[in-house]
Amino acid sequence: MPGEPVSFPNAAGQQLAGRLEMPLQAAPRAFALYAHCFTCGKDVRAAVDICRALCARGIAVLRFDFTGLGESQGNFADTTLSSNISDLVQAAKFLEQRHAAPKILVGHSLGGTAALEAAHLIPSCIAVATVAAPANPEHVANLLGAARQVIEQQGEAEVLLAGRKFHFKKAFLDDLKTQRWQENIHELRKPLLIFHSPTDATVDISNAGLIFAAALHPKSFVSLSGADHLLSRREDSEYVGLLLAAWASKYLGELGVQPAARPATEGEVVASINREHYHTQLYAGAHTLVADEPRNVGGTDSGPSPYGYLTAALGACTAITLRMYADRKQWPVDSVSVRLKHDKIHASDCADCETKEGKIDRFTREIELQGNLSEEQRQRLLQIANKCPVHQTLESEIRIETSLKS
After folding, report:
1. What is the DSSP string of 304-362?
2. Which domains does the chain have, with CATH numbers?
């Protein structure tokens, strides 16, 4: 999923920082806009996971920091919900000028509220999805706690939200009161998908009911059981992304959006990585995989490490080889389980290794066979395990030829 940093001006001419995620080696079938949650940013996990899922379905996505947040210019204290809506409109104009106008709007929390409002101002929009969005924008004012009264009385105040200080002005509160949220949702007349968790402690799930009741069909609701407001668990954000991508496909063309063209032919592997450490998209023929590194080495742990895949390849090859041999011999093998680990050891600790200095790679492999097998059959299968093709490749001389594509 190649992506590029982009910037475009807001209505006041200040530069907003964004990231445009494009499907890998395929022309986008549509473009989407993503609006992040209140005081968050474009790189929060939920935004990244949802954008990845849409890209996998051939939908390019622009996510950006609202004015005064993240890498975008401007003063957050001068922003309002109306300015966020304006930012979305400007982002849509940027996409239309550079690529194509967005057809899908996705918004998280207050970003969802902004997306519902902005959909009326973006003619190209054909469908809207919200995640944990407040129905009434004034709900956000309640998050300010006791500071709300200070802002009303003194005109401004600093508020601590999620461990960070933000400066709010009374204009922010006044703007929330002017939003015609029920009428706007009722007049949306576009397919609407609502995600919300019954355990959301920030925006109660009753908000989803209010949005659903105000909207006309087609409308859908998905309950995110066990999820928190920010979708901080990867399984929750990825679930939203997968469902959203499938739902969006229904409204993009008569037959929906098909998965992006595969960049890898049969027997070929393509690996692609961008700036998000160290999430790597893998295409093995017609199959899509993800590789990464653990968090303790700077990765995001969204998939196995390269050595994890290497170890898995040995395990899969061992199991398949034993299954083939048992079937050919018609032996009663009900199941094969192979447990493996990879590590590096000092060569001096290996008595029968030719290498005597430095470290060598070691794979430990334990095989469990289920079935009514004789001891002789079990020992023969152990010998066959050592003859699986990947095992032989790892123990043989290997040549790797590398070149740069011109």
Report:
1. --HHHHHHHHHHHHHHHHHHHHHHHHT----EEEEEEEEEEEEGGG-TT-S--SSEEEE
2. 3-137+179-250 (3.40.50.1820), 263-299 (no CATH), 306-395 (3.30.300.20)
